[in-house]
Design goal:
By secondary structure, this protein is α/β, with parallel strands linked by helices. Helices cover about 35% and strands about 20% of the residues. A hairpin with a 2-residue loop joins strand 5 and strand 6. It is globular, with a radius of gyration of 23 Å.
Length: about 325
């Protein structure tokens, strides 16, 4: 029973949008690549989990505040016994674990997945004292990539880690767990402590970005406008004006974190290719109005483009040609 669906992380949305409109530095390219790999690993884990486990509550990619301590869970499974944390690491290559340190190509990595797992488990234990409850809090670090291998002589490493060949048996073992009234109580507690991602603080300089509209297939800005579509002159893809504007609203929202949208700034962001009347129509539909009058401000009311489109696609009179598969299915198929 999925209680929170996994969304594209805000950091990944940011760097994807930034890459469309600005040349990324080497450091930012590395960040984008790391976020892409991490998200792909989480989707792969989710797809295998959903094949095997269906009766347990699961929260995906949540942040919580517990007694002024912030914690993040890639996957938090709730059963009558308590909490099972799955920390997902989409590492690839040959890693070594010795003397409580992690190495790849003889270089120590800064993050310790087992330490992260234990910290999260210990923070969840606070619920015992806050709510006077008795439950367990444990978990595993999941390595879903078949391209990951681990060298270690640590005697208890298997108590903390699940490699790809172990993932299905591990998930099948969860089917032995029960979920009833006790799990319902724990779920309600988690829900009361969920918060938005408190660490996302990226923003960018408006003047440094390429302005205009881009093809959602190949990212080219070389588009020709008709009454209904923008056609890419590089790959031939056609995106509806509807698609283009909503994508721009989503990009603007993530690139300028906590900044309100104004009609003037959005018009410039779109390269002045959209009429004011058309732009205003979509602002009213997809944004919340903050102020009225000539200085009207708007805030995009959806998480991202996909969130805005999930209930809208079937209502469109005109379609993208060809329609782009904007879902997550293709990301994970090649990894299975």
């Amino acid at each position: 029973m999925i209680l929170t669906k996994r969304k594209i992380p805000k950091e990944l949305l940011y760097f994807r949008a930034l890459q469309k409109r600005k040349y990324l530095s080497t450091n930012n390219k590395k960040k984008l690549d790391a976020f892409e790999k991490g998200y792909a690993g989480e989707l792969l884990y989710d797809s295998i989990y959903d094949e095997i486990v269906s009766h347990l509550y699961v929260f995906r990619d949540i942040y919580m505040n517990i007694d002024n301590n912030i914690l993040q869970c890639d996957a938090l499974i709730v059963c009558d016994n308590g909490f099972i944390i799955n920390e997902i690491k989409n590492f690839k290559g040959i890693y070594k674990y010795e003397n409580n340190k992690w190495y790849v190509r003889h270089n120590q990595i800064s993050d310790d997945p087992i330490l992260q797992l234990n910290r999260t488990a210990n923070k969840l234990v606070k619920f015992k004292y806050i709510y006077n409850l008795n439950f367990s809090s444990e978990g595993k670090v999941i390595f879903p990539s078949p391209e990951f291998s681990l060298e270690t002589d640590h005697p208890s490493i298997s108590d903390y880690t699940i490699l790809r060949h172990q993932l299905r048996p591990y998930l099948y073992s969860l089917n032995e767990l029960k979920s009833s009234h006790q799990a319902d109580i724990l779920v309600a507690i988690i829900q009361n402590h969920i918060i938005d991602n408190p660490y996302f603080n990226y923003t960018t300089d408006f003047e440094e970005l390429n302005k205009g509209v881009y093809c959602r297939m190949c990212s080219s800005f070389n588009l020709k406008k008709s009454n209904i579509h923008f056609q890419c002159l590089e790959c031939g893809n056609k995106d509806t004006i509807h698609t283009i504007i909503v994508q721009a609203l989503s990009d603007f929202d993530i690139l300028f974190n906590n900044e309100f949208i104004t009609r003037k700034k959005l018009w410039k962001f779109l390269g002045k290719h959209i009429s004011e009347s058309t732009m205003n129509r979509y602002l009213r539909k997809y944004c919340n109005k903050i102020d009225k009058g000539p200085a009207t401000k708007y805030k995009f009311k959806y998480y991202d483009f996909e969130d805005a489109m999930k209930n809208e696609m079937r209502l469109w009179r005109y379609k993208d040609m060809p329609q782009i598969d904007i879902g997550n299915h293709n990301i994970i198929e090649n990894m299975k």
